[in-house]
Each structure stands twice: as structure tokens, then as C-alpha cells.
Design a protein that fits this description.
The chain has about 500 residues and is of the alpha+beta class. About 45% of the residues lie in helices and about 15% in strands. It has 16 helices and 12 strands. The strands form 3 sheets. The protein has a 5-stranded antiparallel β-sheet. Helix 9 (about 285-315) runs antiparallel to helix 13 (about 390-405), helix 11 (about 340-360) packs antiparallel against helix 14 (about 410-430) and helix 14 (about 410-430) runs antiparallel to helix 15 (about 430-445). The N and C termini lie far apart (about 70 Å).
Length: about 500
């Protein structure tokens, strides 16, 4: 079937229609309207119903073609001249071009364009009239903020690129689009600032996208798995967000945004470990508040990772580390529990993960009720029945709440996965097992790369100049340069000479 779409269009309108119908079969959404403009001018307007704006098509395009006054304009013209007359003077459309390749003709047709064929010429006119139903720009759900823009990306790529261009009104913000997926022919675009982003980075992104050879791309997650540096890691090495301000901020730091048609989640490369603990709201609050919030996120990450395993270790092997009164209380609670602490923690974590997944999949009108039943009734009943202790319920609850503090869900999922391994190490070797797990995690993080750049930057390798916007967030007047770990062309962010006499200069 692929061979049938190769080659150029035929001069005969009938042959083009026959070949198109052979390719698409008896598709009922394929609409062909044939028009006789004069005695020697026969054209066909072809489009896919549901993908084009039919109201504009009828009111502008078809109305222009059926105007009786245009018949006199075709006298004495050949087929190619008639096509040019239609393109330049008759058809009312801003997005209009000519194609002669049949495969390109079909692709344009399936992408929501109106195609116009003129009998006697091997060219076709493409009129851009997309008109499918879109979701309105609304508040993003995955990365909510208290202060900041309340607009998120949609499934329409052109809407998403417009949202970014509203943030960055620079002529050097370049947009390049590729078609990936032999069957889906999904539009994948990259956006970057050509005077800031590293040319090597841009070329590497293009190279990795060009190497993708697959039938379908339905979401940006497909692209993420194809282009990431290392697949065997629980940690995300490519950042994704549905917030235009977050993506725009990344582009301004020399990163490259990857947009996929049909999804509101945009990828950002390269990315680093500390980026997953930063929120766009950090830059809208005062620096001291933002720094405190980042410390809370890192603390929550460590609680998510180590709280259950630390409980298992100290209650099983290191009771001498616990105050006497607390040891007596824990012993009294566990007196009727039939399972060791390792099994108890593992069962509770598995139960919570099941409840979490059920809360996501259950319809929203009953999801809240199920969550309350699962967390309160089941937990209290398990404690009353003597299957688990009250302490493990508290530990698992704190762990679950802490995981929601991490702004990016990919890092939270990674922490949940590693937590089970640490519980197992704690159950077999106590604190020594946890320490061994920490060494493995640090070594693994130090080995990771994101598009060839160290994942743990600016901590390893250490860059003191970049620490001002990593774990800490210095005030905006002190953020004079962009992060250097992106190997960008222009490090300068602010013109210091225009800030003479400010409060920060006087303090210096």
C-alpha cells in the first residue's frame, strides 16, 4: 500500500481521484465536491470531514469558486495558468501552497487541509483550514501553583507554540517541525533560542529524533523513551511539563523544547536532578520563601525514600537507637502483630500503592469516597484486627504525603520504586543495607547523563556559579548569568550597568 502513494500527481483529475479512493478505501469521511467553473475548467475540492472548518470552507472557498464572474477570467488560459489564477486572485485563504507529490498530497489531506485539483495539471492547491474540536486553554492539572499563570498546554500543537511565543516575543525563537511515525505521521516540533542554545545540543536533538523509526507516536512519552541517554534507570532524565511558563523559562536558559501534536505535555532537554524539585512558582515568590520551599521538597524526597526502610531497620536490628519509652510503646503495639516489621511495611506499602492506583482509575464521582474508605476504614480495621501496628500506619501515611510534595510526578514515581528496594535491604541488613543502597543510588546518579550533560550538575561536577539557582534560589538581581551547565552561547542574563544604585549594589 505504501507504493501506491509514491510518485507525482497525474494531469488527469479522474486518475487522481481513482488512486485516492483506492488508497483510502470506502472512507465515508472523505468528501469530494466537483465543480465546473466553465466549459473547459473542471476542478475537485477534497477534504476529510471533521478535520476542516466546513463553515469557512463553504462561506469563503466554495463561494469564491461558484462566483459566475470568474468564468471570464479563465478564457484563453491553460490548466497551469488557471491554477495560478486560483491561487493568486480567486481563493480567499491566508495559508495556501502548491504541491505536486501524491504522498505529500495525501499527508496534507489527512492533516486537516483542503486540497483543490484542477483537471489538466499535475499540481494541487493546499488550503489550510483546520477545524477539529479543541480543548480550551485551562488551568494545568499536573503542576498546580498558588501564584503564577493559570494556563496550560492543550492537545493542539499550534495552540501550544502560540502560548510559548506569547511568553518569548523574540525573532530568534526558532520552530522546526518533523513528521515521525510511519503510520501516524505525527508532527513533532522543537523550539529553541538560536542565539542562546548550544548548536551542538540542537543538532543532537535533531539527530536523535531522526533516528526514530516506528509506526506510531501518540504521546510525548514515546519520544522520551526513544531519545533518552539511558533506559535502565528509574530516574527521569527528560523533563516534561504542561505549563507554558515552565517551558519558556527552560528555553530562556538555553534548553530545547520538544512538542508533540496531540498531547499537552512538552519535553525539555537537557535536564538535571535538581530541576525536578523546582517549581515555576519559585520564581514568582520572594527568594527566601522559594529557598525554604525547595528545602522542604528535598526533605520530603528523603522521607519518601527512607522513612519505611529506616523504621524496618531500627525496629528489627537497632532497637538501642530508639528511646526507651518509645521502644516500650512500639513493643506493646507489635505484641499481637503476627508479621515481622519487614513484611508489615511491605504489605502496607503495597496496599497503599493499590489504593493510589485505584484512586486514579476509578470514576471521579466515586473516587473520593473510595479514597476515604481505603485510607481510614481499612487502615483502622487492620490495626484493630491486630494485623498491623499503629506506628506503621503513621510511617506509611507520612511517606505518602511527602511523595506529593515533589513537583514533578516522574521523580515521585522513581522514589516510590526505589523505596521498595530499600525496604528489602533494611529487612535483611538493617542500617547497613540502607547505607549500601544509598551508595548504589549515588553512584547511579553520578553516572547518568541528559543529552551528554552530567545529570547531577551543578553538584557533581561542582559549579559554584550555578548553585545560586539550584538547591537555593538567590534574588533576581543576583541572578546575573544563566546556568553554565547547558553549555549555552550567551551566559549573560542581565545588564548590570543599568542597575547602578540599587539596594543590592549598595550592599556590595
Amino acid at each position: 500500500m505504501k507504493d501506491t502513494v509514491m510518485g507525482t500527481l497525474s494531469h488527469r483529475l479522474e486518475e487522481n481521484q481513482i488512486q485516492l479512493h483506492q488508497l483510502l478505501g470506502k472512507s465515508t469521511d472523505l468528501v469530494t465536491k466537483e465543480l465546473q467553473l466553465d466549459s473547459s475548467t473542471h476542478i475537485a475540492v477534497i477534504y476529510i470531514d471533521g478535520l476542516v472548518d466546513t463553515q469557512v470552507l463553504h462561506n469563503s472557498i466554495l463561494y469564491s469558486l461558484q462566483d459566475g464572474a470568474i468564468q471570464d477570467q479563465f478564457k484563453g488560459l491553460d490548466s497551469f495558468q488557471k491554477l495560478e489564477l486560483l491561487r493568486k486572485r480567486i481563493l480567499i485563504a491566508g495559508d495556501l501552497s502548491v504541491t505536486h507529490d501524491f504522498e505529500q498530497f495525501v499527508h496534507q489531506l489527512m492533516s486537516g487541509n483542503v486540497m483543490v485539483l484542477v483537471d489538466g495539471t499535475a499540481d494541487a492547491l493546499r488550503i489550510g483550514l483546520p477545524g477539529w474540536e479543541d480543548r480550551n486553554v485551562s488551568e494545568p492539572n499536573s503542576q498546580s501553583v498558588v501564584r503564577g499563570p493559570m494556563e496550560g498546554f492543550t492537545e493542539n500543537m499550534r495552540t501550544n507554540t502560540a502560548l510559548i511565543r506569547r511568553k518569548i516575543k523574540d525573532s530568534q525563537l526558532w520552530l522546526e517541525t518533523f513528521q515521525i511515525g510511519k503510520v501516524t505521521q505525527t508532527s513533532v516540533s522543537i523550539m529553541y533560542l538560536t542565539h542562546i542554545a548550544s548548536p551542538d545540543l540542537v543538532q543532537e536533538v535533531k539527530r536523535r529524533l531522526a533516528k526514530i523509526d516506528t509506526d506510531s507516536i501518540l504521546e510525548s512519552g514515546y519520544i522520551e523513551e526513544f531519545i533518552q541517554d539511558k533506559a535502565a534507570t528509574p530516574f527521569p532524565t527528560i523533563y516534561n511539563s504542561d505549563r507554558p511558563d515552565t517551558i519558556a523559562a527552560g528555553i530562556l536558559e538555553g534548553k530545547v523544547a520538544i512538542l508533540v501534536d496531540g498531547t499537552p505535555f512538552v519535553l525539555l532537554v537537557p535536564t538535571f536532578f535538581v530541576s525536578f524539585f523546582q517549581s515555576s512558582e519559585d520564581y514568582y515568590q520572594r527568594s527566601d520563601i522559594s529557598t525554604l520551599l525547595r528545602f522542604i521538597r528535598f526533605l520530603s524526597f528523603f522521607i519518601t525514600l527512607f522513612a519505611p526502610s529506616f523504621y524496618v531497620a531500627v525496629t528489627t536490628y537497632h532497637q538501642e537507637m530508639i528511646p526507651t519509652n518509645l521502644v516500650i510503646s512500639l513493643a506493646a503495639q507489635r505484641e499481637s502483630v503476627p508479621f515481622p516489621a519487614f513484611v508489615e511495611a511491605l504489605l502496607m506499602e503495597l496496599t497503599y500503592e493499590i489504593l493510589r492506583e485505584a484512586g486514579v482509575r476509578i470514576p471521579k464521582n466515586v473516587g473520593q469516597a473510595i479514597s476515604i474508605v481505603g485510607t481510614l476504614v481499612i487502615g483502622q480495621a487492620a490495626v484493630s484486627a491486630g494485623l498491623i501496628s499503629s506506628a506503621i500506619v503513621i510511617i506509611v501515611s507520612i511517606t505518602a504525603i511527602s511523595s506529593f510534595v515533589i513537583p514533578e510526578s516522574g521523580m515521585a514515581i522513581a522514589a516510590r520504586m526505589i523505596r521498595f528496594a530499600l525496604i528489602g535491604l533494611a529487612g535483611f541488613m538493617g542500617l547497613y543495607g540502607i547505607l549500601f543502597g544509598v551508595f548504589l543510588i549515588i553512584l547511579h546518579l553520578a553516572s547518568l547523563r541528559s543529552f551528554g550533560m552530567p545529570y547531577m550538575s551543578p553538584i557533581a561536577p561542582y559549579r559554584s556559579s550555578d548553585l545560586k539557582d539550584s538547591i537555593f534560589r538567590f534574588p533576581w538581581p543576583l541572578l546575573k548569568t544563566r546556568p553554565s551547565n547547558n553549555k549555552i552561547q550567551d551566559l549573560k542574563r542581565q545588564d548590570i550597568s543599568k542597575r547602578e544604585g540599587s539596594a543590592y549594589d549598595r550592599e556590595k
